[in-house]
């Protein structure tokens, strides 16, 4: 046995720079396998500039990212896109994620999934499916998704998911054009055998920001939605878990966006760029690392974009002296950028933000005017 | 399932909900849809007993013996804990 040399500390061994302790490891990773999608929902959370197919990570590259993610501490993998089923190697990707030790959640519109393919995903170890819902009938759903026949196809996919017994969450994105159908939406989730429904009122990032005037609900719709959810929680207790994400513009305090920047989750885009959140690229001056050139752990621990808004030290007043500082972390950086023009500002949703009046003016103007046409999500047309 | 759990219910973890040992944090966790719950030793001990065959009374008796605790106290704790999990559909009963 050889002695292991021990480092010695001399009295003048002062570090040249201050080192910050490593952040807690992430719990969840969003893997955007592709930006390709047969649907063109006007609220897509993908960026306006979509990644081309030839830039996408390969199966083997994703498998390596998954191994690094597990070593870093990630427990849950959300497999998304675009439409992840647009990847012909989806089954192999799910198998690689399970092999690495991740809980695998497939976030899909259902388009591109067949009974056979779902059986293969089941065999590969897929843990859970989150199926998006654009509306409760073909009229609304195909209008919002911009894809004729999409609703009928989705209902067939839901039946196949139920046949296999894969746990299902319905993810209903709600806005001005379908909030009136909220009670039927919840009923449909139960009827399809879903264990959970996420009622996600559109948050205005990505394409949704571009389509905000067309999607903005009225205050009456929002108040009614809260009543419908409260009633449904009683009616479906123990049968259907209901998660409700209210529209944050109508709230008094901001959402704890990403549970705090760089605290819980990370997002890998189709070409391997690692983002602290979906919309992070809308903040000018941030630079992002790529898993093709930098280990994931180094990106999480030391990446400039992850450290840009980690913690709360960067926050201005009124956040610094606010009792909610460590509850909502000042809200969403991308929203602060979009509305206040400053990513370090208090989220303008907050009643204490000096920019709240701007948000109220937006709500008043947009919800009182007839909705304009959608700008559908399209590749290569930001 | 509606209403509170009873000692005769036979709980189990439904498909898509599983126990996992988190090697990085060295903690047992319960993984489920949009959920990763860090478990304390008691929570882990309860969930590890669920098999869909034995009822809550039997599970509570086994835990009471292992931890040398009064079975009434354990059973009440188990019903409350599993009831909260069932409301989120992380636990189901046969």
UniProtKB/TrEMBL annotation, chain A:
Cofactor comment: Binds 1 [4Fe-4S] cluster. The cluster is coordinated with 3 cysteines and an exchangeable S-adenosyl-L-methionine.
Biological-process GO terms, alphabetical: pyrroloquinoline quinone biosynthetic process
Region (Disordered): 1-21
Domain Radical SAM core: residue ranges: 23-239
The keyword Cell division appears for this protein: no
Gene for this chain: pqqE
Xref: SUPFAM superfamilies: Radical SAM enzymes
Subunit structure: Interacts with PqqD. The interaction is necessary for activity of PqqE.
Reported cofactor(s): [4Fe-4S] cluster
Keyword Ribonucleoprotein part of the UniProt annotation: no
Function, as annotated: Catalyzes the cross-linking of a glutamate residue and a tyrosine residue in the PqqA protein as part of the biosynthesis of pyrroloquinoline quinone (PQQ).
Compositional bias annotation for Polar residues: 1-11
Amino-acid positions noted as binding [4Fe-4S] cluster in the UniProt annotation, renumbered to this chain: 37, 41, 44
Full protein name: PqqA peptide cyclase
MF terms (GO), sorted A to Z: 4 iron, 4 sulfur cluster binding; cyclase activity; iron ion binding; oxidoreductase activity; S-adenosyl-L-methionine binding
Pfam family, one: Radical_SAM
Annotated catalysed reactions: [PQQ precursor protein] + S-adenosyl-L-methionine = E-Y cross-linked-[PQQ precursor protein] + 5'-deoxyadenosine + L-methionine + H(+)
Domain of life: Bacteria
UniProt keywords, alphabetically: 4Fe-4S, Iron, Iron-sulfur, Metal-binding, Oxidoreductase, PQQ biosynthesis, S-adenosyl-L-methionine
UniProt pathway: Cofactor biosynthesis; pyrroloquinoline quinone biosynthesis
InterPro entries in the record: 4Fe4S-binding_SPASM_dom, Aldolase_TIM, MoaA_NifB_PqqE_Fe-S-bd_CS, PQQ_synth_PqqE_bac, PqqE-like, Radical_SAM_PqqE_MftC-like, rSAM, rSAM_sf
Family membership noted in the UniProt record: Belongs to the radical SAM superfamily. PqqE family.
Known EC number: 1.21.98.4
UniProtKB/TrEMBL annotation, chain B:
GO molecular function annotations of the record: quinone binding
Coiled-coil residues: none
Pathway: Cofactor biosynthesis; pyrroloquinoline quinone biosynthesis
A GO BP entry: pyrroloquinoline quinone biosynthetic process
UniProt entry keywords in alphabetical sequence: PQQ biosynthesis
One Pfam family hit: PqqD
Presence of keyword Flavoprotein: no
Quaternary structure annotation from Swiss-Prot or TrEMBL: Monomer. Interacts with PqqE.
NCBIfam families reported in the protein's UniProt record: PQQ_PqqD
UniProt-recorded name of the protein: Pyrroloquinoline quinone biosynthesis protein D
Organism for this UniProt entry: Paracoccus solventivorans
């Amino acid at each position: 046995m050889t002695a292991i040399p021990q480092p010695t500390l001399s009295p003048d061994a002062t570090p040249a720079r201050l080192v910050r302790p490593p952040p807690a490891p992430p719990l969840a990773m969003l893997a955007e396998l592709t930006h390709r999608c047969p649907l063109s929902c006007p609220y897509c959370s993908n960026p306006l500039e979509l990644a081309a197919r030839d830039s996408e990570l390969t199966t083997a590259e994703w498998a390596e990212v998954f191994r690094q993610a597990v070593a870093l501490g990630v427990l849950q993998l959300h497999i998304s896109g675009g439409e992840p089923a647009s990847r012909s190697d989806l089954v192999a990707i799910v198998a690689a994620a399970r092999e690495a030790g991740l809980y695998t959640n497939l976030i899909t519109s259902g388009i591109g999934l067949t009974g056979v393919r779902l059986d293969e995903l089941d065999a590969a170890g897929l843990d859970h499916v989150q199926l998006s819902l654009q509306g409760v009938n073909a009229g609304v759903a195909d209008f919002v998704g911009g894809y004729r026949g999409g609703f009928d196809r989705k209902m067939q996919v839901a039946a196949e998911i139920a046949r296999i017994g894969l746990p299902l969450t319905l993810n209903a994105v709600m806005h001005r054009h379908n909030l009136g159908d909220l009670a039927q939406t919840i009923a449909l989730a139960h009827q399809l055998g879903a264990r959970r429904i996420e009622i996600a009122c559109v948050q205005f990032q990505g394409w949704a920001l571009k389509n905000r005037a067309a999607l903005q609900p009225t205050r009456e719709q929002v108040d009614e939605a809260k009543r419908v959810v409260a009633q449904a929680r009683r009616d479906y207790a123990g049968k259907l878990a209901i998660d409700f994400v209210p529209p944050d513009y109508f709230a008094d305090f901001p959402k704890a966006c990403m549970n705090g920047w760089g605290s819980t989750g990370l997002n890998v885009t189709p070409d391997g760029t690692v983002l602290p959140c979906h919309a992070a690229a809308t903040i000018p001056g941030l630079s992002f690392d790529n898993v093709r050139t930098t280990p994931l752990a180094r990106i999480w621990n030391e990446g400039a974009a992850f450290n840009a808004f980690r913690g709360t030290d960067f926050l201005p007043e009124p956040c610094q002296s606010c009792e909610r500082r460590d509850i909502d972390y000042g809200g969403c950086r991308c929203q602060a950028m979009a509305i206040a023009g400053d990513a370090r500002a208090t989220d303008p949703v907050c009643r204490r933000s000096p920019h709240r009046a701007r948000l109220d003016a937006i709500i008043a103007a947009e919800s009182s005017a007839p909705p304009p046409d959608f700008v559908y999500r399209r590749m290569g047309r930001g | 399932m509606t209403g509170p759990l009873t000692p005769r219910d036979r709980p189990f973890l439904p498909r898509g909900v599983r126990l996992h040992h988190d090697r990085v944090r060295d903690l047992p966790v319960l993984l489920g849809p949009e959920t990763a719950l860090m478990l304390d030793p008691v929570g882990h001990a309860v969930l590890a007993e669920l098999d869909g065959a034995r009822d809550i009374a039997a599970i509570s008796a086994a835990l009471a013996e292992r931890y040398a605790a009064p079975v009434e106290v354990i059973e009440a704790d188990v019903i409350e804990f599993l009831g909260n999990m069932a409301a989120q559909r992380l636990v189901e009963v046969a």
